[in-house]
Amino acid sequence: MQIDRSKRPISSQEIKFNTPGIHHFDLYNGLKIFFSAKKDLPIVRINFIINNGSKFDPDDKKGLCNLLAMCIDEGAGEFDALQLADEFEQLGAQFSVSCDTDVSIISLQVLSENFISALNLLSAVITQPHFNDDDFELQKNKVLVRLNQSKAEPDYIADISFEYFLFGNNSPYAFPVMGVEHTVQNIDSDSIRNVYKNYFAPMNSTMVVVGDIDNDLLKKELELVLGKWDRKPKINNTVTNLNRTKRNVFIINKPGAVQTEIRTGHLSSKRNEKDFFQKQIVNMILGGQFSSRLNLNLREKHGYTYGVQSRFSYFKEAGYFTVSTSVDSNNTANALNEIYKEIKKIRNGITNDELSFTKSSLTKKYPSNFETYRQIAANISSKVIHNLPNDYFETYINKINSLSLDDVNKIAYNSIYPDELITVLVGDSKSIFSQLSENDFGEITTLEFEEVFQK
To answer: How many CB atoms lie within 10 A of CB 42?
Structure first.
């Protein structure tokens, strides 16, 4: 049986859904707590958020936040690295540490019966990390090896190079979280200790807790374990320079590559601005789902790619729009032309049928974002990081359903800027360059990957 993808499936009836309730309280030392009870299973999930992301890394030490995240659980309190890992394992706990552009997050998930023991281990990691020199050198070498390996990954090169040229080298959002080789080389163990000392503090942190535990008991245990943690943070301030761009193409040479990684896009508004819901709909129709205009064009009609997607991405102080795909090298210009055509076309507006289908898709899949403990914690964390309204979860579906065709078409025209597209093409520069014309694509620059973060 052949499926006719030109016909969308019929929507079913509306789904009833209760958003998770969230309680907020502060510990005596100023640590902010957001708690959501979930009693389905005897599980507790914690996301501990520190306002210390890679955007705060010094210019000559990009990758510092990432290295701190890798080192902070390499021994803490009375345990060395192996003992600490073994303690978490014996409790059946899932434990991880990560750093992104805006924040660092220490995550823990454990059975309710082991919560207090796991919380004590978590507290040791947060308040008593060892930061031994030998552990630091081991983790630093891992990063350098990973950076060297990434030179063979066209998709990674395309992603980080696109953000670099989009934001410009004077922006804290221009550099990859992992850093680049010459800046990671500059990082020493004292740098890690200084960042921890300056920024890991209760007044600079937030804890999100989801799970099977009583609110009063949670507050009591947190006061006992973390209430005496009392360090004053250094104030984190960054200047986010966001300059409007003009259409440019950057070809990053990967000799002999048979495919081209394509990234094209421009700067956009932040996550907590009023056009978010309209942009969600515009993006779903343009390239945010399998039946999107971009996918029907590049994949179904022309066969240039297995898949193409567009999205609005958000940092705390900035946002951007991007289209990404991978195509056969010989079809680079053809695919890029079709992408540009669809980007221009979406500004002319969407149809009532597209609006109705996308509203239904967004609202009916929304409850699935709150199925697991991890998902609920992640959504609350995002709400905290981006300073979203208190009733954001409760009003999401109504705000989507209340949008009119005019509301969405106005934002489609005012949030997509074809003349400001920054395009990064990673592939064989000779093959790619011969296909492009500056009259169609703007100024074209060809360079090696090693030159990217020196421009």
So the answer is: 14
Six-digit token string for 249: 């193409």
For residue 221, give its domain range: 23-226
- Considering the domain architecture, whether residues 302 and 200 belong to the same structural domain is answered as no
* Tally of domains in the chain: 2
Give the C-alpha separation, 171 to 203, whole Å.
26
Q: Which CA distances in Å does 365 have to 7, 119, 288?
A: 20, 33, 14
Buried b (16+ CB within 10 A) or exposed e, 203-238: ebbbbbbbbbbeeeebbebbeebbbebeeebeeeee
pLDDT at residue 6, rounded to an integer: 59
Is-above-0.90 flag for pTM?
yes
Residue closest to 404 by CA, chosen among 228, 229, 281, 264: 281
Stretches where the chain sits below pLDDT 70 are 1-15, 235-241, 455
Asked whether residue 351 falls in the same domain as residue 260, the answer is yes
In a domain, 238, yes or no: no
Any domain includes 3: no
Q: Whole-angstrom Cα distance, residue 57 to residue 170?
A: 13
pLDDT of residue 159: 98
Please report the pLDDT score of residue 236 as a whole number. 65
Q: How do strand 422-427 and strand 248-253 relate by DSSP bridges?
A: parallel
Looking at the fold, whether 311 and 264 belong to one and the same domain comes out as yes
Based on the fold, state whether residues 192 and 117 are members of the same structural domain: yes
pLDDT tens per residue across span 136-188: 999 999 999 999 999 999 999 999 999 999 999 889 999 999 999 999 999 99
| Neighbour count for residue 88 (Cβ, 10 Å) | 22
Contacts of 61 (CB under 8 A, 6+ apart): 179, 183, 184, 186, 187, 191
pLDDT tens for 326-358 read 999 999 999 999 999 999 999 999 999 999 999
**Do 51 and 198 lie in a common domain?**
yes
pLDDT of residue 18: 81
Domain-terminating residue out of 194, 226, 258: 226
Which whole-number Å values give the CA distances from 310 to 81, 154, 259, 343, 364, in the listed order?
41, 18, 19, 10, 21
Answer yes or no: is 17 within a domain.
no
pLDDT, position 167: 95
pLDDT of residue 19: 85
In the numeric block, which tokens belong to residue 272? 């907590």
Do residues 270 and 215 both lie within one domain? no
Residues 189 and 330 in one domain: no
Report the CATH number at residue 393: 3.30.830.10
What are the angstrom distances between the C-alpha of 387 and each of 25, 51, 158, 271, 277?
Answer: 16, 13, 30, 9, 16
How far is 386 from 370, CA to CA, in rounded Å?
18
Q: Are residues 35 and 136 in the same domain?
A: yes
